[in-house]
Amino acid sequence: MSEKLTILNKEKIAAMKSGDRTRKDILVLIINEVNNIAKNDTKNPNRAVVDDDVITALNRTIKKARETRDILVKQNVDTSVPDNEIAVAQSFLPQQMGEDEIRAKIVAIVGGETLTKQQRGLVMKTFNTDHKGEFDSALLNKTVEAMTA
Long-range contacts of range 139-146, CB-CB < 8 Å, 24 or more positions apart? Predict the structure, then answer.
């Protein structure tokens, strides 16, 4: 079992013991997503959960919650549920890179401050392979776009 999944399970039990139903429910949602990712892997069905599955599930949870939050804001409705989901999921992700750190890594990858269209793919692939879970995709896209000639 993945080390990160073990942590999620321990946190779920702690939330149950403390009576924090909201946190427990969110953790159950994330754990189910993790298990579904491993179970539905078309290349290797029913494989064991790995830490990358947990990162993917956390990012999916955050993305879905942000989309829900955006809809609720437009409808002028309470956003506490998606806000809680985002907060819990983010608490298990590694520290996210800021724009300056992303820019520095891009410069290191391509050797310059300006990207060509061909280098964009290399940058995205490198980040998704070497820095999974360490960056906000929207911020990476914004930075890459700003650096593209």
Answer: 139/97, 139/98, 139/99, 139/102, 140/102, 142/99, 143/99, 143/102, 143/103, 143/106, 144/106, 144/115, 144/120
